[in-house]
Amino acid sequence: MFVKQDRKERKRLRKVRTILLKGGIPFSLVVDIGANIGTTSLAAVEFGADRVIALEPELRNFRLLRANVALNGLEERVTTFNVAIGATRGTATLHVSPRNSGDHRVVKTESCSGAGVAMDTP
């Protein structure tokens, strides 16, 4: 599932890794918030991260994330959680884009024009 291309995720990770290493900070743990299907998580492992924690609240994307990690044999290095994360504990609505699985977003309930999924933040 994961295709090794020089996508924007890989370019960003390369830049972050370079900055961290120049500052003497190891590139060992990456937390991928809103991991989607795992493109950034898998690229982080490829760039040398020892561990990745991947958080994805939307169930269909989460299932693809888990499959992507498994198909690439990275279950020991990438830990996945089907959760949302926020600054405070509570409940929010995740607007699920009907056209783009990478464009889901948390919105105020009254501004959600499409399908929404209630989610709790631990």
Verbal overview:
The chain is an alpha/beta fold and 122 residues long. It has a domain of 79 residues: Vaccinia Virus protein VP39 (Rossmann fold, 3-Layer(aba) Sandwich), CATH 3.40.50. Helix content is 30%, strand content 24%. The protein has three helices and six strands. The strands form two sheets. Strands 1-2-3 form a three-stranded parallel sheet, covered by helices on one side. The chain has a three-stranded antiparallel sheet with strand order 5-4-6, with no helix packed on it. It is globular.
Order of helices and strands: HEHEHEEEE
Q: Unreliable stretches, pLDDT < 50, 5 or more residues?
A: 111-116
Question: Class of the domain at 8-86 in CATH?
Answer: Alpha Beta
Describe the largest sheet: 3 strands, parallel
* CATH-level-4 superfamily name of the domain at 8-86: Vaccinia Virus protein VP39
Q: How many distinct beta strands? A: 6
Strand order of the largest sheet: 1-2-3
| Portion in strands | 15-25%
Helix % is 25-40%
**Rg calc:** 15 Å
> What would the average pLDDT be, to the nearest integer?
82
Q: How many helices in DSSP terms?
A: 3
Q: What's the CATH topology label of the domain at 8-86?
A: Rossmann fold
CA-based shape: globular
Distance between the termini: 30 Å
- For the record, the CATH architecture of the domain at 8-86 stands as 3-Layer(aba) Sandwich
Structural class, judged by helices and strands? alpha/beta
